[in-house]
Amino acid sequence: MIGDSILASTARRYGNEMCNALVPLGWQVAVEAEPGRFVGFGLEVLDVRLRAEGGWDAAVVFLGTNYEGNPDSYRARLGEIVERLAPRPTLLLTTAEFRAAQREVNRAIREVARAHDHVSLLDWAAVATTRGVLTGDGVHLTDKGRSVLAVAVARALDVAPFRPGECLESRFRDDSGIRAASSTTTTP
C-alpha cells in the first residue's frame, strides 16, 4: 500500500486499522505511507519495494491529497506507477475534495484507472462525504474515518488469493512531514 498521511494514519504505528481489516482476509500488508508526500513518492516506494519483493499479489495507491497543481504531470506519474505495477491488480483511491484542485486530481485518477485493465477504483471522494469520517480540515481522518477507509479497502480487495495474512514491517514511515504540513496553511 502506497500513500500519504491519509493512508499512513491507518498503519501499525498509529491505529493499525488497515492490517486489522486486511490480515483476516489473508493479505500480507505493508503500509508504505508518509505525511506530505506527492505522487512521485509512489515511484520511490516502487524502486525499493518492488525490486526487493517482486511477488506482490496486489497494490493499493492513495496519492493525490498533496498536489503540485499540474494535472498532466500528476497523470503521467500515476500512470507510470500503475504501469510498473502491471499486471498486478491495483486499487486506486480518489481523494477527498477539500479544495477545487482535488477535482483535477480525481479526474486524472479516474482517467488512469479507465486506461488500465488491471486497475480498479475506490471512490474515496464519495465515501469521505459521510458525516464523521473527516476531521475539521476536510482532509484527514477521524478515528471513525480510519476504520471506514480500512473497511472500504478490504471490501474492494476481498479475500487474498494465496497466503495467510500478516502485518508486515513498513520501510517508509518518516512522519516528520506532519510538522511541516501543520506549519503550512492550505486554503480549500
What does this 3D model show about the protein?
The chain has helices at 5-8, 17-22, 40-52, 71-85, 101-114, 124-127, 143-157, 177-183; strands at 2-3, 28-29, 32-33, 59-62, 90-93, 119-122, 166-167. The longest helix has 15 residues, at 71-85. The protein has a five-stranded parallel beta sheet, sandwiched between helices. It has a two-stranded parallel sheet with strand order 2-7. The chain contains eight helices and seven strands; from the N terminus they run E-H-H-E-E-H-E-H-E-H-E-H-H-E-H. 38% of the residues are buried. 41% of the residues lie in helices and 11% in strands.
Which percent range describes the beta-strand content?
5-15%
Global Rg:
15 Å
What are the low-pLDDT stretches, counting only 5+ consecutive residues below 50? 179-188
Overall pLDDT, averaged?
A: 92
Shape: globular
What portion of residues is helical?
Answer: 40-55%
Largest sheet features: 5 strands, parallel
Category from helices, strands and their pairing: alpha/beta
Strand order of the largest sheet: 3-1-4-5-6
- What is the H-and-E element order? EHHEEHEHEHEHHEH
Instruction: Calculate the terminal CA-CA distance, rounded to whole Å.
Output: 27 Å
Number of helices: 8
Map the helices and strands.
Blueprint (H helix, E strand, L loop, with lengths): L1 E2 L1 H4 L8 H6 L5 E2 L2 E2 L6 H13 L6 E4 L8 H15 L4 E4 L7 H14 L4 E4 L1 H4 L15 H15 L8 E2 L9 H7 L5
Parallel strand pairs: 1-3, 1-4, 2-7, 4-5, 5-6
Helix pairs in contact: 3-4, 4-5
